[in-house]
Amino acid sequence: MLTSSVRWIDRFGNVQLSLPGSVLGGASAAGIAVRGDDALVRVVRSYTELEAGAPGLLCDANDAVALVVREGSAAQHFDVAVGDRVDLVGDFGSLC
What pTM value is reported for the model? Predict the structure, then answer.
């Protein structure tokens, strides 16, 4: 398990975590836990790999892990704010 926190949230609601993108590796899915609520999300290289409204994890332009929702706000979807704890569970390697 990797423990991180929400570093910042952009104007679209994408949630940048305090983890380098390299931890995502060859993972195709990851378990995430936000305040004890567990979810399974896809690890993707771009938003286009997600269905509208679907959450995912990707390596953002800043080489950080970002929690995203295609055509939506991950911050609202997961009800997170800057400083909140987010745990990732999975087999991680290097994506970026």
Answer: 0.85
Strands of the chain, DSSP E: 2-9, 15-20, 29-34, 37-43, 55-59, 64-69, 85-89
Of 4, 3, 26, nearest to 15 (Cα)?
Answer: 4
User: Residue 10: which domain range?
Assistant: 2-89
- What DSSP designation does 34 have? E
**20-50: pLDDT as tens digits:** 888 877 677 677 777 667 888 888 889 999 9
Structural domain total, the chain: 1
CATH number, position 8: 2.40.30.90
Instruction: Let me know: does 17 contact 30? Beta carbons within 8 Å.
Output: no
CA dihedral 85, 88, 94, 96 (to 10 degrees): -50
